[in-house]
Amino acid sequence: MPADSTLIVAVEEKEESPFQSLVERSKHEDFIRRAVDLLVERVVFGRSSRNAKVVEWATPSEIKTAIDLKPRDNPVSHDELLAIIADVARYSVNTGHPYFVNQLFSSVDPYGLIGQWLTDALNPSVYTYEVAPVFTLMEEEVLREMRSIVGWPEGEGDGIFSPGGSIANGYAISCARYYFYPEVKNKGVYAVPKLVLFTSELAHYSTKKLTTFMGIGGDNCILVKTTENGKMDVEDLETKINEAIEDGATPFLVTATSGTTVYGAFDPLVEISALCKKYNLWLHVDAAWGGGALMSRKHRHLLAGIEMADSVTWNPHKLLAAPQQCSTFLIRHKNILKDGHSSEAKYLFQKDKFYDTSYDTGDKHIQCGRRADVLKFWFMWKAKGSEGFEKHIDRLFDNAQFFVDHIRQREGFRLVIDNPECTNIMFWYVPTCLRGRENDPDYKERLHKVAPKIKERMIKEGSMMVTYQPQGNLINFFRIVFQNSALDHKDMIYFANEFERLGKDIVV
Ligand SMILES: *Cc1c(COP(=O)(O)O)cnc(C)c1O
Questions:
Q1: Mean of pLDDT over the chain
Q2: Distance from the CA of 439 to the center of ligand 1, in angstroms?
Q3: Where are the alpha helices (DSSP H) in 2-132?
Q4: Which range is least confidently modeled, 3-7, 94-98, 217-221, 310-314?
Q5: 125-371: what fold?
């Protein structure tokens, strides 16, 4: 049966013949039901059991052979489409698998998934109340709650769902600049002094990237040194602020990080905010990764001082395990987002509508059409309550601590940071051939080659997925990320055993 018509065409074209329209409906209904069954079987459950593979490694040419990627002139049948779904799933990385610990996101939350599917079935675009009434109100409510968790006074502030933490960090630059120099909106960078901002050398690369994107220039994103735990060095921050001023530049923003991407370090927000006060700078906290810890009474101290921030990036799709993509930008100042970004398109944001147009919130975004990323997160929140999120976070930190304690006393493992603060853990695995050779002149060079070799083996076997990277002058080390609270202590031991199995006999 060719998939030649969309549902709406089916209904409209066949209106004269009710029988035909029933045929069309049953055809599409049958396809959707079979596809959903397949998704539930093959994608959601079939692939997330511990003995399934995390990845079925295939080369580009193998994938090109397995899946006919080229769009064709002729339609394919429903049966073929179902086979295609199965193949796409088969060769895709199984990010819902418990042993996918490669990235700062993973797992499939059942409520998040259904929230996402509901979003897709409703297919809204959140720019006006008229088109997205429920989602407009839902966004305001969820963002209000998140601001209250950050610790800002009730009734203050604003926020948006943003297409990723990178863009949210860009909003911080834009809002801070507009706050100090509103003329920048129409006159541009030509009307303002030479601006500089500060973030740490271990901060996410997006701050520098967005500095470039916004015409401030990447060189004017000044990287502050970090201490040996990976936290921003506050003394160096003050030195660099003064150097910039002496150079004739105008500092306006510090972006601190709560949970750095590689080290999981939390910058000292109380000290940094004191400097921001002293020099009249906007304080943005990039809590894209670590923000979820605010949900836990036990761990929120890691972000102590965040309530002094002017703005915050917080990605529920990271520690809180909402499906991709779910990211927020929160701001303590009420009208900056709107005043700084609105362009009042008359075809969309008509001011003479019959309802209260303050609910048409789309104009504070830089996007026009926009997915309702709020729904899946809100739905998860309903399903678990804040208590559920707290338990989730406490479990992640408990697993991470268990893993650190376990590998600390196990032969072959060396921690990069002795006491990691978040749930991403960095370590080297030292194969037998290098043990006791720490003082050899070529030790580092050889150890550097170990991680890529172990990675190749794990991917080809599909037994787990853990990322590695060099950083600064550190040679390749692994970074394992715990963000899935379905894991337990036994899984932590599995990971360590698996490193030993794959890595012990490697010769470099
Ligand atoms: C992941 C991350 C980002 C970027 O978020 P995206 O949603 O991937 O764009 C920004 N900052 C930190 C600290 C991150 O870990």
A1: 94
A2: 37
A3: 7-13, 18-38, 60-66, 78-91, 110-122
A4: 3-7
A5: Aspartate Aminotransferase; domain 2 (3.40.640)
